[in-house]
Design a protein that fits this description.
single chain, 186 residues, alpha/beta, 6 strands
Length: 186
């Protein structure tokens, strides 16, 4: 069944990107309860799995500062993260190559911290012609103000916002889609 509009996300038109969901990065988050943040991020990963959506996982300075990607997220995604040194993942050629390899023009992105590791690659991807949908409740900032200012900035550049539950429901949309029904209700 085709989408009512090509503006909606479908399993065939998007890729999910998870940036820096690591312990030390989460430690600095105060814009959302950290357990809720983790739950929302894992829910986003489970959504990708249910709908067979390509995912990219990236980490910054795992060994020296940020720690390893949350085990709960790795358990779902079962992939090695792209290791980087820069705050802006769009400045890492391995990351850019992975994004382009998906062949998707709609990127659903979540990151820690919103005011750096989400806003920078979002603006860069938009500038290169990608559509970016930011998952605001699987992302977190060092303060509510920092998170909200970054969201506003990304939206001013053309990004759209979404939440983990909205993302799941937009992909399911019709309860007659039995192949993803159980995964959605789980």
């Amino acid at each position: 069944m085709p989408a009512a509009t090509d503006k909606l996300l479908t399993p065939d038109n998007c890729a999910f990107i998870f940036i820096d969901h690591q312990p030390q990065m989460a430690f600095g988050v105060t814009s959302i309860d950290r357990q809720l943040l983790k739950n929302n991020t894992v829910a986003m990963a489970k959504t990708a799995k249910v709908f067979n959506i390509p995912t990219i996982l990236t980490a910054v300075e795992t060994e020296s500062f940020s720690g390893y990607i949350w085990p709960e997220l790795l358990d779902v995604l079962k992939q090695d993260p792209i290791e980087r040194t820069s705050m802006n993942s769009w400045e890492d050629q391995g990351f850019i190559d992975a994004v382009k390899k998906t062949g998707k023009k709609k990127l659903v992105m979540a990151a820690l911290w919103t005011e750096a590791c989400l806003v920078f690659p979002t603006i860069c991807a938009l500038d290169e012609g990608f559509e970016v949908i930011i998952n605001t409740d699987a992302s977190g900032g060092t303060s509510v103000e920092a998170h909200n200012a970054a969201v506003r900035r990304m939206e001013q550049h053309g990004a759209e916002s979404i939440t983990s539950v909205q993302l799941l429901l937009e992909l399911q949309r019709d309860w007659a889609r039995k192949d993803t029904y159980q995964g959605t209700t789980d």
